[in-house]
Specification:
The complex is a heterodimer of chains A (about 210) and B (about 500). Chain A is of the alpha/beta class. Chain A contains 8 helices and 10 strands. Chain A has a 6-stranded mixed sheet with strand order 6-7-8-3-9-10, sandwiched between helices. In chain A, helix 7 links the parallel strand 7 (about 150-155) and strand 8 (about 185). The longest helix of chain A is centred in the last third of the chain and has 18 residues, at about 165-180. The relative contact order of chain A is 0.21. Chain B is an alpha+beta fold and about 500 residues long. Chain B has helices at about 5-15, 15-55, 90-100, 140, 145-150, 150-155, 170-175, 200-205, 220-225, 265, 295-300, 320-360, 360-370, 375-425, 435-455, 465-490, 495-500, and strands at about 55-60, 70, 85, 105-120, 160-165, 180-185, 195, 210-215, 230-240, 260, 280-285, 310-315. In chain B, the strands form 2 sheets. In chain B, strands 1, 4, 5, 6, 7, 8, 9, 10, 11 and 12 form a 10-stranded mixed sheet that branches. Chain B is elongated. The interface between A and B is medium-sized, with 29 and 23 residues.
Chain lengths: ~210, ~500
């Protein structure tokens, strides 16, 4: 049984034109997947469906063989998946430490994680908006990793950072797959990041195709 | 992270937004609490004024019925003065009525007589009246005319005698026309006691403990055929003072020259004394809340003994209440409208501000939803935030409203006293016509001083119950505002929220 599965998923914004058409795919743990495709093809939408932020027009999204609607979309987002966004999406009135602890009851693990990701003791207690883009993305990654979920969904995680930071982020994601056995699904335009994935999917004209590596 | 922790962080970190919200709630709470305190004070003052001003309904014998009159024969065979032989009010009647009508605070029975008074049985010289008549013949009646025709005119050197069951419940004292300044009140069980005015005592060199002697008028003696004059010793046990000014043509009619005593005292010497010492001319009832007098009197008038062919009639004196009721009711209505306006406008403003603030938190809401925090949990955070801010604002409002309500109370009060003073000169058409002149004058004069002096005693204070009511009301309104403001946000799917965030 796959960890996550798309089963004949179709989606339309307006009920007329299909953005995603009869997509089926399986995602395993201890693997990193990249979804690439032209802008506006529906990559973020696909990620939203996997993460329970929206529901398909037809078909189903399965987690461990169970439809996530039956699990409960909110429970699925809380227990099964974590998001990393292009715009970091941190809470502006919380410190990095508090942001990282949002989805984790154990505040103790947040500080070591943030330190490991390169933040200093003073930086973790500073207002999050006072950090650089790269630092903020590291906080977002820490939040995702600390959530303890089996699946990490990353939407253009390197979109707003420089190349050096992109490389670092790519390494962190790969590490999380290898060290903790997570399933990482990344939507990206970056060929470097896609190259690090175990499997690459191309989304075009609503069809998802596995690419030969 | 729990909702409480998130709420705490938001309230303590987003100071500017929260201070604006706190200020709005503080203003609403201050105005509402001030108005509530003011209204409570006005309601209390209204009741105090009504109770202090008194007012009563009176039960009197039905003298309209001709079958209740007879013309006796004098000892010399001539026709005497026509007299009333119908049933008179008594303590038994009073107690019977009291048991059937709720809300009565007490009753008093009284009768009016006249007596001549001296303080020395050796010279038997009449006490000097306090000069209070404004008729030009008054002085002549007391000296020149008396010299020439004693029998016809000893009325003008006599004193008004008021027998009562309990002088403290006599309408003159209850209505504050008179007040006891020295000594004590008297009741029906006593004999040989009296209360006189301070002025009369001073004029005749009398004090508490002194003895005066009461006797019948010559005209009464002649009617009864009695030739020997009896003098009854009466001890002065109390002195009263008058409030207000009174007009009388003759001094002998002035309230300054009135003596309060008991039926037993009268019986000990007077030919005018009724056979039944528990028989009085008038019965007065007082209400716990004088505004109920009219309904009580209406109820009583339906009893079998009352009505056109009954033994008794009912009349009401609530003039004083009617005079002050208007201005005080106006304040009450004004304050009630103010409370409603404050709450309505406050809620609208609060909703608008909260709505705007919550919508501006769409980014934060999207993040929470994306990490699996449910909508109910997020709403709980917003409610905790507004609860904390509301509690802080309301706590501060308790202190500010204390100051504002006292200041506003004083300002309103000054305006009310002016209104009440103006209205004192206007007689209400709803007043019963059964009042006699003395009652009418006494009542009117007591109003001039009692009503305005009592109104200055309004005390505005914030009650714990008002604070609790405010907390609950503002809190519920704030929660409602948060809930309504959140509806449009939570109707969006998480993906739609995140799209808006992007």
């Amino acid at each position: 049984m796959s960890l996550m599965e798309l089963s004949s998923v179709s989606y339309s914004y307006d009920g007329k034109k299909m953005v995603l058409t009869d997509i089926s795919a399986a995602f395993e743990e201890r693997k990193m997947y990249a979804i690439v495709g032209p802008s506006g093809c529906g990559k973020t939408t696909l990620l939203s469906l996997l993460g329970g932020l929206d529901t398909p027009s037809s078909g189903s999204v399965l987690f461990n063989g169970t439809d996530i609607k039956k699990i409960g979309l909110s429970a699925h987002r809380r227990d099964n998946v974590s998001f990393i966004f292009q715009n970091y999406n941190l809470i502006d009135y919380m410190t990095p430490l508090e942001n990282a602890s949002l989805s984790s009851a154990a505040k103790e693990s947040a500080l070591p994680m943030l330190t490991r990701l390169g933040l200093t003791q003073s930086e973790v207690k500073r207002n999050v908006l006072k950090l650089s883009g790269g630092q903020q993305q590291r906080v977002a990654i820490a939040r995702a990793l600390l959530a303890g979920t089996k699946v990490i969904l990353a939407d253009e995680p390197t979109g707003n950072v420089d190349d050096a930071m992109s490389e670092e982020i790519a390494g962190l994601l790969k590490e999380s797959v290898q060290e903790t056995g997570k399933c990482v699904i990344v939507v990206t335009h970056s060929t470097d990041l896609a190259a690090k994935a175990d499997t690459v999917f191309l989304l075009r004209n609503g069809i998802l195709q596995k690419q030969n590596m | 992270m729990s909702s409480f922790r998130r709420a705490f962080l938001y309230v303590t970190r987003k100071r500017t937004k929260n201070i604006i919200l706190l200020f709005i709630i503080f203003i609403v709470a201050t105005l509402a609490l001030s108005a509530i305190a003011l209204r409570s004070a006005v309601e209390t003052a209204q009741l105090n004024v009504r109770q202090a001003l008194g007012g009563y309904f009176a039960v009197s014998p039905n003298t309209e019925d001709s079958s209740k009159w007879e013309t006796p024969l004098n000892a010399d065979g001539t026709s005497g003065e026509r007299r009333f032989i119908g049933e008179m009010p008594s303590t038994a009647l009073a107690e019977s009525i009291s048991s059937q009508i709720d809300g009565l605070s007490g009753f008093s029975l009284s009768s009016s007589y006249r007596a001549r008074i001296c303080k020395d049985l050796n010279d038997k010289e009449d006490l000097s009246l306090v000069p209070c008549g404004n008729g030009y013949v008054d002085a002549r009646m007391q000296s020149d005319i008396y010299q020439s025709s004693v029998e016809a005119n000893d009325y003008y050197i006599s004193f008004g005698l008021q027998t009562c069951t309990n002088s403290s419940l006599d309408y003159n004292f209850v209505g504050k026309a008179l007040s006891l300044i020295e000594g004590r009140h008297i009741d029906a069980s006593e004999t040989g006691v009296a209360i006189i005015s301070e002025e009369l005592a001073e004029r005749n060199g009398l004090t508490i403990g002194d003895t005066i002697y009461l006797r019948d008028l010559d005209s009464s003696l002649k009617t009864s055929g009695k030739t020997e004059v009896e003098y009854a010793p009466v001890s002065i046990v109390g002195l009263f003072e008058l409030h207000g000014t009174y007009e009388n043509e003759f001094s002998c009619d002035g309230i300054e020259n009135m003596i309060f005593t008991t039926q037993n005292t009268l019986k000990s010497y007077s030919v005018d004394s009724p056979n039944d010492s528990d028989s009085y001319e008038n019965l007065y009832f007082y209400a716990e809340d004088p505004v109920e007098l009219e309904s009580m009197a209406e109820t009583l008038s339906t009893f079998p003994q009352f009505g056109r062919d009954g033994d008794f009639t009912v009349s009401i004196n609530n003039r004083s209440i009617l005079l002050v009721e208007g201005p005080l009711t106006n304040i009450n209505q004004l304050i009630t409208i103010l409370i409603l306006l404050v709450l309505i406008v406050g809620v609208i403003i609060l909703w608008l501000v909260l709505s705007s603030q919550i919508k501006s938190r769409i980014h934060e809401t999207g993040i929470f939803l994306s990490i699996g925090i449910g909508k109910a949990n997020i709403l709980l955070q917003y409610i905790i935030e507004i609860t904390v801010i509301t509690l802080i604002a309301c706590t501060i409002a308790v202190f500010s409203s204390n100051i504002i309500s006292k200041t506003a109370g004083n300002l309103l009060l000054q305006d009310t006293i002016a209104s009440v003073t103006e209205e004192q000169d206007v007689l209400s058409p709803a007043i019963s016509q059964s009042l006699d002149d003395s009652e009418e004058q006494n009542t009117q004069n007591s109003n001039n001083t009692a009503s305005t002096s009592l109104l200055t005693e309004i005390s505005v204070s914030i009650q714990a119950s008002d604070v609790l009511l405010l907390f609950i009301a503002v809190l519920l309104l704030a929660w409602l505002a948060v809930f309504i403001a959140s509806i449009s946000l939570f109707r969006l799917k998480p993906r739609e929220i995140l799209s808006k965030m992007s």
